[in-house]
Amino acid sequence: MNENYTALLGILTGLGLSAACGFRVFVPLLVASIAVRSGAIHVADDFAWIGSVPAIVCFSVATSCEIAGYFLPGVDHFLDVIATPAAIVAGTLLTASFITDMQPWFRWSLAVVAGGGIAGTVQATTVVTRAASGLLTFGLGNPVVAAGELAGATTIAILAAILPVLALYVGPYLVVNAWLVTYTWLQHTDVDVAHFADPDWSWLRGAFQTVDRPYGPVVDLLHHRIGSTHVAHHIDHRIPHYHAARATEAIRQAFPEWYRFDPTPVPVALWRVGRDCVAVQDHQIGWYFTDPLVDER
């Protein structure tokens, strides 16, 4: 994996957790501790202690006390006073813990300015919000504010912790599989592609039940023309991709009535296949996809 990409993800994770510190100091520390312990995220070697059992216990106790304190009148204002510098320190530490392979002076400068800065900014916003709530609702609205801050801290911290997993695994997995399903679906499905019962099926007839489509030069280059020469692949999978275009032309000339090439743009073809290929009917010469709505009309 590209080291710069990994470093960038680490910094973004640290900044996300630092932002969550502005809502609650210890919630993101606890989330980070559990995530490091489980192996979901990784920190610099000098911050490996974050994932230790004693750290998880300490952060759990501190988180519980902090959450409870913000729901107690008077205590919440006291916590705001000490939470501002604490949030800056926690944000700085969390950002620094995810920065690796940097000079110490740059690492800590970035951690203080970016991590501590974003934590302090968010914390200042919560202080103003709580003060406004106290003035407008005589303190009755403060528990609602506290609940919102807790939800924000928890949500942002969890999202920041799973960001590397989403970015490195889930996202690419979904994109690649969605593309492969779409590609394969369009290769083998269309309104004029037949399905045969045993008495009517033959190997050659079955091999021709696929469609070549124009995917453009970029996709053809990346996929070795498997989408625009797929009929040849069905007929003989041993044909190398660098001969597939010539083989396709020979097949087109030898079997003009059986060879299928659909020049329809891929987005339009995808819409048509998804709309019309919902059922099959026996047409004596094979089972074909039909649209039930068309049949009813």
End-to-end span in angstroms? 56 Å
Class from helix and strand fractions: mainly alpha
Q: Helix amount, in percent?
A: 55-70%
Round the mean pLDDT to the nearest integer and report it. 87
What spatial form do the alpha-carbon principal axes imply?
Answer: elongated
Q: What is the alpha-carbon Rg in Å?
A: 30 Å
- Low-pLDDT regions: none
Number of domains: 2
Counted by DSSP, the helix tally is: 12
- The order of strands across the largest sheet is 1-3-2
Briefly say what this structure is.
This protein has 297 residues and is mainly alpha-helical.
What does this structure look like?
This protein has 297 residues and is mostly helical. The chain folds into two domains: 3-174, no CATH class; 189-296, no CATH class. It contains twelve helices and three strands. Strand 2 and strand 3 (287-290) form a beta hairpin. The longest helix is centred in the middle third of the chain and has 47 residues, at 142-188. The model has no long low-confidence stretch (mean pLDDT 87).
Secondary-structure map:
Elements: H1 3-21, H2 26-38, H3 53-69, H4 75-97, H5 104-137, H6 142-188, E1 194-195, H7 203-207, H8 216-222, H9 230-235, H10 244-254, H11 266-276, E2 279-282, E3 287-290, H12 292-296
Antiparallel strand pairs: 1-3, 2-3
Helix pairs in contact: 1-2, 1-4, 1-5, 1-6, 2-3, 2-6, 4-5, 5-6
Keywords:
297 residues, 2 domains, single chain, 67% helix, 3 strands, mainly alpha
